[in-house]
Amino acid sequence: MNQLPILVAAANLSKSPSNVRKSSDAVADAQLEANIAAKGIRQNLIGVPVARKKGHYRIAAGGRRLDAVHRLIEKGVFGPDYQVPVLVLRDAKDAIATSLEENFFKLSMNPADTCRAFQDIVETEGKTPAEIAKRFGLTERFVLGRLRLADLAPCIFDALRDGEISLEIAIAYASSPDAVRQAQIFETLGQSYYRNNLNEIRRQLAQGSNSGNDPKALLVGREAYVAAGGRIDSDLFTDDASEMWIDGDLLDQLATDRLAQAAQAIREREGFGDVRIVPTTHIAYSATWDLKPIEGEQPPLTPEQEQRLADIEVELEAFENPAETDETEEEVEARYDRLNAECEAIRQRAPILTEEQKASALAYVVIGSDGQPRVHEQLYHVPTEQADDAQDSTGDDDEVDADADADCAPAQVAPGQPKISQRLAEELAEMKAELLRVHIASDPRFALDLASFFMADAATRTYGSAERATDLRANAPASPLHGYESDTPAAGQWLKLEKDLDRCWINHADVRTRYDAFCALSQEARAAWFSSAIARTVQAVPAGRTGSVFLDHLGVKFGIDVTAWWRPTARNYFDRVSKAMILQAFETVGGLELSSRYAASKKHDLALSAERLFSGDLIVEAEVKERALQWLPDAMRFVPVGEAEASLTGDGDADCGSGPVSVDGDAAAEALAAAPDEDAGEDRVAQAA
């Protein structure tokens, strides 16, 4: 017959030396104490009688519960005669084994079950998070966090319950309350390398948002942001500074407005010739790459600055041998970054300028790490295009803007079209050629047909080589541009295609050995070399010159979607054309109303707005955004035969048939057999993009 527990006054109970649990956790003990205070002892203790002391027992299992009861009696929560249920062991020899059994076989709850249990208490018992926290000895923030986890996207919550992801991963996903976006990111990361990277998960969820301690947020201020309709999602798993400001576009606009006000005050106070705002903490290289710096006299360090530098160096040295601290890893990194930023700001002091230098100086105002507007330490000479802003406003749309490489002659374009500089025309031609080279290199079948045509056409004609825009020797054509470095997606994909070529044969010293090694490559590897060699020969030809029509024809053959590979930016286009041309582009996609909205903007600010509009980052109507994402300057379009200017079309170019020219021969047959399907080349490029 099973023995039943008896009620024993807590004062008659003490912990047994046989109790195997020798250490505990203060936080867990406090939680247990809070629960016992609310609901009492619901699970009996296990004890053995004390010899020669009737009614007294030593507790072998349940020592933590007994300690909690004793503390509650000391605090006056329970009376001194509070009784506890005790199951008395008949044989004291079993005390150690019994204590081990109770502690060893305990299984911690699955975090998902804990979250759902809290949610059920709220829904069924009507308890508030604060009441739950008090009952279980937790903080209200902890309970709110677990309730947030209970609202995770079902796929993520199930993964937590099944042990497929850790609690830390689930908390990272819960940093955003948007369950739909959670599921999208969870599916996107899938089995990728970053699937368990907490920072990457938070970064992707936070795209378009800003944390509460972001310099932009500090600049605008929480009150102003909320007053403008901004939404805030508090992060329940970290501190208040980590709350997310969801409406990134609104914050950007407020920060820009606040920075513009500060810039105007700085210009009036300092007497700078011009002041531009950059609503970030640093200036991108593209914003100043063609500006001439002003060299002023470096001011000496003040005693306070020297002392602060010395203090910072001591603090930075302490990071090499870190001491124990309550700071999280993220807080330590943030403190290290702040110290470095402060040190750099002291060392890179703004130069002392004469009044004449200030009057001709261009200053950039950025956001400091503390959220305060500050003048960037480097000043520049005001560029010459400033003088042409007035000319732009007169409506003379046919003139090339002064910032569009004034030392270059206007490029040859069709009659009635706006003029652009020679340099810009050649850069745009290079970008088009990059697209063609990537697509040719990705399609051996097309490359073989193209090479066969190049050779046959050159052999049968004594003139017109420029019409083909190639040199079959496969030497990369010399570019007339100096200092041009491409960072387009096509240029990056070209480097990848080149890197993937099988180069095991090229290091042999003897040409015969190299030849034999090359012939030993697989057909696919040799076909890739052939396609790459043909693609290298394609020249960059600006629109309107001999050969450009044929290159356009090839682009149409491939069906290249230029908008998927290239978008106009301030650096690669808008800073290089006239203000009138930018406003004309605005009018093309958004009508006169959109163009008029930005007509009063300065050229530099207008170029940045244009970059955002045509990349889809500017808040406009859906149909305007769709048209903007499809807009291209004429120089970047692959023009079909029917749209080309008749005066620019050479004899024979238009009658090439609807597909690539096929050729016969053993070599061609072998290459075609090795080549992938006709759509494979485009698939390779599309996947890489």
Secondary structure tally: strands = 12
Q: Output the structural class.
A: alpha/beta
Give the proportion of residues in helices.
40-55%
Radius of gyration: 36 Å
Task: Name the poorly predicted regions.
Answer: 386-414, 459-464, 645-689
Give the percentage of residues in beta strands. 5-15%
Number of helices: 31
Distance between the termini: 76 Å
Largest sheet: 5 strands, mixed
- What is the general shape? elongated
Determine the mean pLDDT.
76
Q: Order of strands across the widest beta sheet?
A: 1-5-3-4-2
Oligomer: single chain
Question: Explain this structure to me?
Answer:
- The chain has 689 residues and is of the alpha/beta class.
- It contains 31 helices and twelve strands.
- It has a five-stranded mixed β-sheet with strand order 1-5-3-4-2. Strands 9, 10, 11 and 12 form a four-stranded mixed β-sheet that branches. Strands 6-8-7 form a three-stranded antiparallel β-sheet, with no helix packed on it.
- A hairpin with a 7-residue loop joins strand 3 and strand 4 (57-61).
- Helix 5 crosses helix 6 (140-150), helix 19 (422-441) crosses helix 22 and helix 19 packs across helix 25.
- The chain is elongated.
- The termini are far apart.
Keyword list:
689 residues, alpha/beta, five-stranded mixed sheet, four-stranded mixed sheet, 12 strands, elongated
Please provide a brief summary of the model.
This protein is an alpha/beta fold and 689 residues long.
